[in-house]
UniProtKB/TrEMBL annotation:
Name of the featured protein: Ribosomal RNA assembly protein
Keyword line: RNA-binding
Record SUPFAM superfamilies: Eukaryotic type KH-domain (KH-domain type I)
GO function terms (MF aspect): RNA binding
Residue intervals of the K Homology domain: 1-81, 82-152
Organism field: Halogranum amylolyticum
Cited InterPro entries: KH_dom, KH_dom_type_1, KH_dom_type_1_sf, KH_domain_protein_archaea, KH_PNO1_2nd
Length: 184
């Protein structure tokens, strides 16, 4: 049995309309969830395939950190999909610095966060003092590096260039070995 703590304002999302999300997690991850909505504690007990059940704590944690349930459940879609969490608080000195860094990560009208998603292929959510990432290992690593650059004070332009370079590498690797555009 594993326990995951979920912020109070996200417990309802883990449960879902009439318990719908909770039941979907239970059936797809082959686990039983015992949710204490007072404390925000979720006990996870594997009742089926133990390997499938391994994704359940990350699914619950991801929903707790602001992901939509359907995105969190995508962790079950393939063995390589992963959930990663970056604590923005570790890179900030105080509340004002935290606010400034979150602002830099989100970008004007959410554009920086959006570009991280578009160019890496991963899902990115900023909630509280954390930035969550769901994707394939190379997508998660790309976002992790971009976030590190932003938190270290790199100009947005440099981060966008890095993301575009990584995007081209990731998509070029995914293409079948036909003639490239340069060869045509």
């Amino acid at each position: 049995m594993q326990h995951v703590k979920v912020p109070q304002d996200r417990i309802g999302v883990v449960i879902g309309d009439g318990g719908e999300t909770m039941r979907e997690i239970e059936s797809r991850a082959e686990v039983r969830l015992d949710i204490d909505s007072e404390s925000g504690s979720v006990a996870i007990d594997s009742v089926g395939d133990p390997v499938t059940g391994l994704a359940a704590p990350d699914i619950v944690r991801a929903i707790g950190r602001g992901f939509k349930p359907e995105v969190a459940l995508s962790l079950l879609d393939n063995d390589m999909r992963m959930f990663d969490l970056i604590d923005i608080g570790e890179a900030t000195r105080n509340k004002n610095d935290m606010k400034r860094q979150k602002g830099r990560l989100i970008g004007e009208n959410g554009r920086t966060r959006e570009l991280m998603e578009e160019l890496s292929g991963a899902h990115v959510v900023i909630y509280g003092s954390t930035l969550g990432i769901i994707g394939q290992p190379e997508e998660v690593e790309t976002v992790r590096r971009a976030v590190g650059m932003i938190l270290d004070g790199a100009p947005h332009g440099a981060v966008y260039s890095f993301l575009e370079r990584k995007h081209n590498e990731l998509t070029r690797g995914a293409q079948l070995s036909g003639p490239s555009d340069e060869q045509l």
